[in-house]
Amino acid sequence: MSPFSVLSLAGNLFGLASATWKAAAPAEADSFQALLAERLRGSPEDATTALFGQSGAGGLPFAGTPGGAASPLLARLGTGGGVAGLSSPGRNLSLADPESGYRMMSRINQRDVTYRAQFAELSAMQAAVATMQQAGKTLGEIDAASDAGSDGATLKAKLQTFASRYNEWIGRFAETIEQGGVLDGTQAAEVSLYELEKSVENPFNGGMRGLHGLRDLGFTIDQTSNLAHFDPATFDAAFQRNRQGVLDTIGEFSANFAKSASLLNASDNFIPRQLNNLDGAIDYLTDNLSSLRSEFGRGDPARPTPQIARALAAYQQLPKV
Question: 99-109: b or e for each residue (b if 16 or more CB lie within 10 Å)?
């Protein structure tokens, strides 16, 4: 079971249940928070035990199921004696506080949908990073005889093509990390956009030839829109003044940009690691959502935003392994 999923569920239970307990019994709520905080400072297995009790041979048990002892935290919700069934509104009336359990399940239902949408969106970003890596490599494939002609026309065309690819990348993924976006708060996505932008703006490419990166070749990033802009006139001036410097700057940029993109997709680095975390959370909820609903109540159905709904539809089209 993924530690990511355990800690997410821990956050759900802590955030939803402790707020109710504070209103009803401040002293008991403080005791609950202290106990949960102590358990979560330990290993993921400690967090699992804190929420769900001791695990039996069959895996992670829930309170009241064979093979597992009810945890002291779930005992606060009154779940130690098994499930008597859900009431018509989907609450489990055997809990000491059915509303806390119901609200927790509403959050988990929403997370179940969100994790799937995020997996699809981050998978699309992973493929796009690979495309940008190839675009960077292609830019640096310079033939001294043809590309370094008298006017540098071929190089200008290559830089304009790269600007178009970069702007497609920004147009596709900039909104997804904004507040309310599918990957809002997802470090792997935020770092990917940031790293490729900073690679484009790196002023040290061509430094040994007296140039300051692509900006001296007329290739800049607009600080408001984050889109790339290429000015052929600036390129022409640089090319006529320092032809070899232009060639070296493009070659250095190409290698560094491709390396940055490659690292983002490297095994166990930002994007693959987050995809593995999401996959573990999705698998856990797929296996246990029914048991959780039986234990804590049905919860409200997920209400995806339009962005999440589109990403969720894309998730449904992914090949299932």
Answer: ebbbbbbbbbb
- DSSP state for residue 56 in the 8-state scheme: B
> pLDDT tens digits, residue range 262-304?
999 999 899 999 999 999 999 999 999 999 999 999 999 999 9
- C-beta of residue 4 within 8 angstroms of C-beta of residue 280: yes
pLDDT: which is higher, 6 or 216: 216
Average pLDDT, whole number, for the chain?
80
- Report pTM: 0.74
Q: What is the mean pLDDT of residues 226-237?
A: 97
d(CA 239, CA 215): 13
The DSSP code for 95 is S
Distance between CA atoms of 291 and 289, rounded to whole angstroms? 5
Residues 6+ apart with CB under 8 A from 167: 227, 228
Q: In this structure, what token pair is assigned to residue 146? A: 């043809």
Give the whole-angstrom CA distance, residue 191 versus residue 261: 11
Residue 67, phi-psi category: left (phi > 0), alpha (psi -120 to 50), beta (remainder): left
pLDDT band with cut points at 50, 70 and 90 for residue 253: very high
> Is residue 252 within a helix (H) or strand (E), and if so which, with residue range?
helix 243-264
- How far apart CA 172 and CA 179 sit, in angstroms, is 16
Number of helices and strands (H, E) in the chain? Answer: 11, 2
Least confident of 92-96, 122-126, 214-218, 240-244: 92-96
How far, in Å, CA of 84 to CA of 268, rounded?
A: 44
CA gap 177, 183 in Å, rounded: 5
pLDDT in the model for residue 19: 39
- Secondary structure letter of residue 319 according to DSSP: P
Give the orientation angle of helix 153-173 with respect to helix 187-201, to 10 degrees. Answer: 160
Q: Is the dihedral of CA 5, 8, 14, 17 positive or negative?
A: negative
